[in-house]
Structures are given as C-alpha cells and as structure tokens.
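Progress against Task 2.4 (sequence-to-structure conversion) is shown through the following example record, which the project officer requested during the mid-term review.
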Amino acid sequence: MDLGIAGRKALVCAASKGLGRACALSLAREGVAVTINARNADVLEATAAEIRALTGADVTAVAGNIATAAGREAALAACPAPDILVNNAGGPPPGDFRDWSRDDWIAALDANMLSAIELIKATLDGMIERGFGRIVNITSVAVKAPIGVLGLSNGARAGLTGFVAGLARDVASHNVTINGLLPGAHDTERLHVTLQAVAAKSGTTLEEARASRASSIPAARFGSAEDFGEACAYLCSRQAGYITGQNLVIDGGAYPGTL
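Structure tokens generated for the chain above:
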C-alpha cells in the first residue's frame, strides 16, 4: 500500500534504537525525509547511516536530550516544519513510589509528558496552516493497564494521554491527527531493564522472568520493533486521516479490556 506520504518531513524523537528507530525506518521506506533525535551522538549517527543505506531517504541526525529545552531547540532547528511528529522518550526507571523524590517525578514529567506537549505546541500551527499533520505519541500499554513497578511512567504517560484527548478533537477539521501508540512487551532494551527489576524483586533469574512474561501474552511472544514501526507509519498515512484521539494498543492481546 502506498501510504501517500512520500516527500513529507518527519521529526522522530529518541530514534537511535528500539521503537523510535523502527518508526523512523518505516517512515523513511515510505519516502519521508526523516530527522532523528537521541542523546548518544555516535549511536544516532550510525542509525542514520543505516537508515539511509536501507531506504535511500534523506535522514538528518540531531543529538540532544529531547526532554530539555536545548534538545528540542536543536531538533526543531533541523526540522522546523515537520508534517509528521513522533514523540518518544525513554521511560523513567522502575521502582517503589516510596523511594521517589519530587525531582524524580519532575524528571518523569519532563521526559514523558511535557517534552511532547512542547513539541506539539511548536509544530501544530504549521501543520494546521499546511492542511496536513500527523502526530503520534509513543506511550505505553500502562496508560490502560498500569504496571506496578512503573509508577513514574504510569503517571506521566497518562497525563500526556489526557491532554491529547481534548486537543485532538480541536484540530481534526484541519486534517491534523493526534494519536497514541501504546506498546506492550516488545523485545527492546527497555523490556530488558524492566524484566531485570521484576527478577530482582521476585528472586528469580532474568531468563525465568522473560519466560513468565512471554507466556502471559496471548500471542505467546514479545513484539518486534519492526511491526511497531509499520503501525506508526500507517497512523501517519494519508489513509489514516479519519483516525484521531485514539490509543492503539500493540501488545499481542495482553490487555484484557474491551475498550
């Protein structure tokens, strides 16, 4: 399927690896000029070169922490008028809420709520003027089914989801959509860190924690970053213009709810 976005420009955050990289790669395959951001310049440049080699697309790498004003300014200087914005940031560490300070909470909000809102604020009006915009927020299935050890993430990502719910309806008439992609257990470094915490808390090995988690998923496996990237590209497509204000769970059927 031709997604109708060749020649568009995209800003994809936290895209040096994992789900962010997969989204950038899928968009680049559709002919989108992609600006990717991440903190580690060496890894980011290697990813940019890899995506260029695989797709032939125009890929710009901008190193910086997207959770900071300086990081966002650098990304927007390289891609000041994106047609597509993929908000993404590494999640805060797992733990017990009794151990978290106010600074821990502020850091989680900066990374997983406020940075996305700032980028939306900086790019939304341009999308409205051009009559096309696709904003995808990568959050977590924890928005719908909170995960006990990820309280910082649960709170910050739910806050972003609540904010977007109203905004998406306000801009839909301009062919600008805002949606959330809620990953479940995908085989990324983030999953590895989470499972290490689970293993330590339960007194099991990492391998046992992986096997236990995978067996609880109806699909009987962890998700792949590639599948996630393709779902993101579709939400950014011309055909997805009637989908907005939604939160698509990609978790192999693990979420048990009907809504």
